[in-house]
Amino acid sequence: MAETTSPRRRRADAQRNVDSLLEAAKRVFATSGVDAPAKEITDLAGLGVGTLYRHFPQRADLVAAVLQREIDLLADAGPAISAGHAPGAALREWLRRYTELVGTKRGLATALHSGDPAFDALPGYFMQRMEPVLAALLDAAAAAGQVRADVSAKDLLHAVALLCQPVRGEDLEYNQRMVAILADGLSPRV
User: Fold this and answer.
1) With b meaning 16 or more CB within 10 Å and e meaning fewer, what string describes 154-177?
2) What pTM did the predictor assign?
3) What is the dihedral of CA 62, 67, 68, 71, to 10 degrees?
4) Residue 183 contacts by C-beta under 8 Å, 6 or more apart in sequence?
5) 117-162 tens-digit pLDDT
């Protein structure tokens, strides 16, 4: 019988470095895009370039890790948002955060469609994590009579992503306004 081994845990300082790099990369990607120089990321994180490449040997590894972390944070926030707000307000708050996730990742769509194998699993992972969370928020809001019942989580995930495509001269506030208009359209039909 073969022994199973659990993944090796990182030392606390190594985990702090990874967390710092991911947070710095998230911020840099939001302002400079996913092709920003590695030095910009490491300077913001207060770490050396060698540390970046030790944990993320390829740029695609870093981009994928940042996106996966952001997906996990938003998916995990769903129940807390739901518990802290009325159903319609919870849905709007989650959509606001989702818009921020999608609207601040300049160059991400191009990177994800680049054919790099590092990104192959991300679309499935995204839907696996996000669709059930959004479906629960939509179901609660529909049950409370606050949104239409004929819109699926998948529809809404795609619609928001499309509304967050870059528009020359516009920024995240523009994306938020467009998604707010979409959310208004979720009101029940009379």
Assistant:
1) eebbebbbebbeeeeeeeeeebbe
2) 0.83
3) 160
4) 91, 92, 95
5) 888 888 889 899 999 999 999 999 999 999 999 999 999 999 998 8
**Distance in angstroms between the alpha carbons of the first and the last residue of the chain:** 64
Joined tokens for residue 121: 């699993």
Alpha carbon distance 29, 23 (integer Å): 10
Interatomic CA distance for residues 162 and 103, integer angstroms:
10
Question: Residues 46-64, buried b or exposed e (16+ Cβ, 10 A)?
Answer: ebeeebbeebbeebbebbb
CA distances for 59 relative to 3, 65, 66, 143, angstroms: 34, 10, 11, 44
Token output for 82: 């739901």
CB atoms under 10 Å from CB of 114, counted, come to 12
Q: How many Å apart are CA 8 and CA 34, to the nearest integer?
A: 29
